[in-house]
Amino acid sequence: QVQLVESGGGLVQAGGSLRLSCVFSGRTSNQYNIGWFRQAPGKEREFVAALRWRSRSTHYSDSVKGRFTISIDNARNTVYLQMNLLNADDTDVYYCAMDPGGILSSDRNSEQYDYWGQGTQVTVSS
C-alpha cells in the first residue's frame, strides 16, 4: 500500500508561482513512476507532468511546458511541482499519482496509476 499526500496549493495572482509537494510512503519498487494531474469540476482529469524514476526522464503537457518543473527529493520521499507564470487556466485541483511498480506504458494516462493523493486546490486570480 502506498500513501500520497499533497500540499502547497493556494491562491496566487496571475504571473505568480507556487510549489506543490507530494510526500509518498509505503511499499514501492525502485522503478516507480510519478505523475501530476489536475482536474476542474465537471471535467476529466488532465495530465500535467510525470517523472520516470528508472530513466530519470520528465514529461510535460504542452500547456505547462516551459513553466512547470517536476522534481524529486529521494531523501524526503517527496516529489515537487514548481509552477511559474501561472494563469487563470491553471486553476484546478492538483493530484499526484504513483505507479509503484514502474510498469505503466503511458505516463499521460491517469488510469495507469494505482495510487492517488487527496488533491490540493490551486486558484489563480487574474
Largest sheet at a glance?
7 strands, mixed
Order of helices and strands: EEEEEEEEEEE
Please tell me the overall pLDDT.
Answer: 94
| Separation of the first and last Cα atoms | 40 Å
Radius of gyration: 14 Å
Structure annotation, total helices:
0
Measured as a percent range, the helix fraction is under 10%
Low-confidence stretches: none
**Approximately how much beta-strand content do the residues carry?**
over 45%
Q: Which class do the helix and strand fractions yield?
A: mainly beta
- Globular, elongated, flat, extended or rod-shaped: what is the shape? globular
Report the strand count.
11
Q: What is this structure, in a nutshell?
A:
The protein has 126 residues and is mostly beta strands. The chain has no helices and eleven strands. Strands 2, 4, 5, 6, 9, 10 and 11 form a seven-stranded mixed sheet that branches. Strands 1-3-8-7 form a four-stranded antiparallel sheet, with no helix packed on it.
